[in-house]
Amino acid sequence: MILVLLLLSFWQSIIAERNSVHSARVALVAQSIDSVLRTQELLLTVVGREILRAGNLPQTPQHSAELDRILQENPVAIGLGMARSDGQLMLVSSNLDLGLLPNLLRAKTSRDSFQEALATDTMVLGRTYFMGAINKWTIPVRKALRNPQGEVVAVMTAGLRIDGRAGVLSNSLYSGAYDRVMLTRASDGYVQFISEQGTGPEQYSKLRYQAQTLVGQIPQSENLSPADTQQSDTPYTYRIHRDQKNYLGAAQFNNRFQMWVMSETLMRPLWVTFFKTALLYVSIFLGSFLALFIMFRIIAVAEAKRLKELMYLSRHDELTGVGNRSGLSASIKSLLRRKQSFMVAVINIDHFRGVNDRFGQEYGDQVLCAFARRLLSVVDDKDVVARLGADEFVLLIKVVNLQALESHARQLSHQLDKPLELEQFPLQLGASIGVAVSPRDGDSVNTLLRSAHLALYQAKKSRNDWCLYREELEQAYIRRVQLEQRLRQALSLGQLTMVFQPQVDHVKVVYGYEALVRWYDEELGQVGPDEFVGVAESSGLMPALGQFVMETSVREFSEFVGAQGEMRKLAVNISVLQFLQPGFAKDVLSLLSRYGLSPKQLVLEMTESLFISNFDDVLAVLNELRKQGVRVSMDDFGTGYSSLSLLRTLPLDELKIDKTFIDGLLDDHKVQNMVASIISIARSHQLELVAEGVETEGQYLALMAMGCKLFQGYYFGRPAALSVGPKSPH
């Protein structure tokens, strides 16, 4: 095996060495030819314009002393001339026989290139042909001269010397019996020149190749498509079977003069060289150097493996084995360079924090690994899976259109909603997905990930959903940033206020108030709590906002009920982030004591989302508060999936029917049945029940008939400051 590897390495080195030689030769020849041709183009342009400026273009063909002088100083050319746009040569160097001058537009060998010269502003190379006027083989070049209106007034033409020391190309480029340099026209595939032993213009001037038999098979290592080869400014290597022979070579395309420069070698002598040396290697390998060779080979393999492992670790996540941030960035940049359309899907596992809190980090790691395996199972091998950190993953999937993208996203969301198979038990979490598309939503790693994260933020509002980035999300993000900055200022300057909505019993007597926070900003106007509370939770301002709400509500309520001499209740909404602050229960009880309120007057309203994570911690705080008399209410009951199970374990005193049920109470039998069920549940669990969002007398009477005794809503009073008294029409 080692010998095979050694021979393979030797063969590859032969190929690499020849590729290097051919590439260097092509680069040198291409540069030299380009330089010569550009010089000739400039010379033809300057000389032609000077002749036209002097008005020396005759009516009949004549020899030109000026062209003779230029020809003498320009050994590359073997003949010069100026032709009219109809192809007739009118001025030529004196070495050309006036009687043998062809019409360049009519002659078969010159017609195509002359027409091409008329249509372009650059110099055009014609087919290599035998020019009878000077009895030599030449490469013709032609440059159209135009007036200020862009019309062709004349065409300068020259025949370039092929061989000889001053020639553009010569057999001096020949370096072996199986080696050659070839110059080929791109427009029609005709060979301009071949430097090969025993081969002259007589043999190759009529040789013509099709494009697919010319440039050959491009190795994958070149990372070029056939179209890319004509745009590359460096040589590329190729292998090809042409003329019943196998060739190895290098080629470079001259885009200005539309020609291929190639250097190639027959493969047969390379095989001969390889087999000769292979026999020597076998002999040496079987000799005294066998042990030494094996030792160095082992060292080399070990070093290569170590480097490969280091490279792998630098691009992959240690826990899950998928790509990491560095690998993801490299993959995105690669796709962007190739200008391919692809989607970036940022995926966040829903409620993963609760998994770590309940089952520990080790179990959480198992969940992450299982989730990564699930992602790998739903994508193709060519797609990219990466982990950004914590519970966030990214997919890179090539897409061809929006319909395919939406299909990918829906299928992905469906697959991630299925339970994960773990050692202990299956676990269903779901995931939120934000999707951005390149190049529409970004042309860099940062902009694409930012767009996908904005879409993810929107998807997380409903959980277990996906969202495609759109421009409105950018505006919403700017709005959130603006809200966050203004909210910080409002909290520090005390610009928020509290209003209180009355809660009444079945005879419409007020027994308590729910405290509601309001914010009016000079720049933003009136901002609803449904907007700024979410911003506070996501920006870390919720503890400060919650403290303001609790302290202001208790203080204003104590002043109000103290003046009234009543024992009414105060309901305050609590956020999960506020509730889990260290010392929350102690701070609440201390606040009540400071303002002279009984714990029995305080009702803490919370939604079931409070219990999704940190259940044990929440339960401990609730029990501590209830021991002192603080009452607990579950807000928006019936809108979540876990309410019934929570009733068995939570120390609740009250349920609140969500306003969405009240809105459809009078005309929807399903809603009526659900409300009746909630009332029955509250009664069976010996819990008080408050119907919120009651806006009409019909709703009030219907709820009374069902057995509901406590109410809240615009029908009884709108939220208002306690100093002026809640407004109520009743």
Main β-sheet: number of strands, strand sense, barrel status? 8 strands, mixed, barrel
- The backbone outline, from C-alpha atoms, is elongated
**Structural class determined from secondary elements:** alpha/beta
The total strand number stands at: 26
The CATH class name of the domain at 325-469 reads Alpha Beta
Mean pLDDT: 85
Please give the share of residues in helix: 40-55%
User: How much of the polypeptide forms β-strand, as a percent range?
Assistant: 15-25%
Low-confidence stretches: none
End-to-end separation in angstroms reads 97 Å
Which superfamily, in CATH terms, is the homologous superfamily of the domain at 325-469?
Reverse transcriptase/Diguanylate cyclase domain
CATH architecture of the domain at 325-469: 2-Layer Sandwich
Give the strand line-up of the largest sheet. Answer: 18-19-21-22-23-24-25-26
Distinct helical segment count: 22
Q: From the 3D structure, determine the CATH topology of the domain at 325-469.
A: Alpha-Beta Plaits
What Rg is obtained from the alpha carbons, in whole angstroms?
Answer: 43 Å
